[in-house]
Design brief:
Organism: Brassica cretica (Mustard)
Structural class: mainly beta
Strand order of the largest sheet: 1-3-2
Shape: globular
Protein name: DUF7477 domain-containing protein
Radius of gyration: 13 Å
Pfam families: DUF7477
Low-confidence stretches: none
Strand content: 25-35%
InterPro entries: DUF7477
Oligomer: single chain
């Protein structure tokens, strides 16, 4: 984690499918998704805790084999 990044903690969840269990566990600990990356066989999510309390936005996970164009707005 970089100094003065605005986050008190950051973690990476990496999985060959989708790290939904780890993401939900981190959400319960106050982490929020701040970055994502993926290859054809891996998904990585960066989760962070902001230094100062922000207005919380709704975050959700969606696992699908096709692009979720009907779900994402």
């Amino acid at each position: 984690m970089s100094r003065n990044s605005g986050y008190s903690e950051q973690v990476v969840e990496l999985d060959f499918l989708y790290p939904s269990e780890g993401v939900h566990r981190r959400w319960d600990g106050g982490f929020r998704i701040t970055s994502t990356a993926a290859t054809t066989d891996q998904a990585a999510l960066i989760l962070s805790i902001p230094r100062r309390r922000l207005v919380d936005k709704t975050q959700e996970t969606l696992r699908t084999s096709q692009f979720p164009s009907t779900h994402v707005k």
